Amino acid sequence: MTxxxxxxxAIAGGVAxxxxxxxxxLNAMDGEMFAAIGEALRAVGRDPxxxxxxxxxxxxxxxxxxxxxxxxxxxxxxxxxxxxxxxRLRHIEWLQQAFGAAEAARPPxxxxxxxxxxxxxxxxxxxxxLRVASADAFFQVAEVDVAITADLGTLQRLGYLLPHGVxxxxxxxxxxxxxxxxxxxxxxxxxxxxxxxxxxxxxxLAETIAAKSPLAVAGAKRSLNHSRxxxxxxGLRDVxxxxxxxxxxxxxxxxxxxxxxxxxxxxxxxxx
Length: 272
Known about the structure:
By secondary structure, the chain is α/β, with parallel strands linked by helices. The protein folds into two domains: 7-210, Alpha-Beta Complex (2-enoyl-CoA Hydratase, Chain A, domain 1); 214-261. The chain has eleven helices and nine strands. It has helices at residues 31-45, 68-72, 81-104, 120-126, 154-157, 164-173, 179-185, 195-210, 214-227, 232-246, 250-261; strands spanning 7-12, 15-20, 52-57, 109-113, 116-118, 130-134, 138-140, 176-178, 190-192. The strands form two sheets. The chain has a six-stranded mixed beta sheet with strand order 1-2-3-4-6-9, sandwiched between helices. A three-stranded mixed beta sheet has the order 5-7-8. Helix 1 runs parallel beside helix 3 and helix 9 runs antiparallel to helix 10. The radius of gyration is 20 Å and the shape is globular. The two termini are 31 Å apart.
């Protein structure tokens, strides 16, 4: 594998496997990796053949977070502080969009986490729908240790997955949260003994989801994302409009026929 290859993608049986593939640098994220993550998630996220997305990291750790050598080269001195600030803003927004692609993807994204999930790694898995971790996994909001306020989604999303007091402690101290503690608070959906077991469990979840109506799953993800942070009435109105349109789909007829006939339903792909 060349150094330029940052992400590997394989699609089989309705499941797209997106793998961080920079193990020699512990999957530390430079500009090419941010671009590759965003491009891969956007591509499989709109692929009508993909019903679920499995996200994992190759090597010893899921991700060591931001590549500090890359970060140190991003903001050279400038004679115009205003223009330099505007450039920094656009760069940060571009980085945010790479991880936002997981949240925006039509199918659910299941992260399989082993070893370290540090800094930008936490930003990325926070944007996923489900998380499975091995016993050796740990999570660290490490930006404070390099004098950065986490700015790629951790502070905005983690509070929906963990108690706010815990999020604040992690963000203020940079301490490591082990897999058992993460499971106790509900950050992860499954805790497995090893990386192999975590991968198998995550793939099992992906395959289970892939067998469901893709329209119903897409609607559920859309409604959950839309309702977050909004009044209940707003979410109810939105999902009512969705179902008013989607309930006439072929998937409902197929699901009812399969249930009555005690067979496995077979759903067609969504439109591109």
